[in-house]
Write a structure and sequence with these properties.
about 150 residues; about 35% helix; alpha+beta; five-stranded mixed β-sheet; Aminopeptidase; globular; about 25% strand
């Protein structure tokens, strides 16, 4: 297997169908690319997992993440997005990416790997617990109307 850093529009278009499985609210690849362009200014990165070296193969899984620092966690890797293709789940691809992200966090001097997941995502919770993660907080949010 090979992990590829996605850093251009062609790569983003290639992984969009997989990202849309996780983020169905994204209207199309153009919206995805526009959001990525803004988020990468905050050090957001996307990596995709492929079965082999072939450039035209379909991605098996992907992860979007960034290195951050705050007073709560110190320096940490925040996992924005993690998805395996719905046709090939439970084959270890998510764990493969989690292992990669753990190594990236360590290489970047992070004290933690942090993510948010909906309370309704019980299958995801089981996966994260198996990865050694602990549920340590609830995140609250409040929608803000545009001015």
């Amino acid at each position: 297997m090979k992990i590829v850093d996605i850093h251009d529009e062609a790569g983003l278009r290639a992984i969009f169908p997989l990202m849309q499985q996780l983020r169905p609210h994204l209207a199309d690849a153009d919206e995805f690319i526009q959001r990525w362009q803004r988020q990468r200014l905050d050090a957001y990165r996307i990596v995709a997992l492929y079965a082999d070296e072939e450039a035209d193969s379909e991605p098996l899984a992907l992860a979007g993440y960034r290195i951050q620092e705050n007073l709560v966690h110190g320096r940490f890797l925040y996992l924005d997005d993690l998805v395996s293709d719905q046709t090939s789940r439970s084959k270890g691809y998510g764990q493969y990416l989690m292992d990669y992200l753990h190594k990236q966090a360590s290489l970047h001097g992070c004290a933690k790997l942090v993510l948010d997941t909906p309370l309704s995502n019980s299958l995801g919770h089981r996966f994260y617990f198996r990865c050694g993660m602990l549920a340590t907080s609830l995140r609250f949010n409040m929608p803000i109307a545009s001015a």
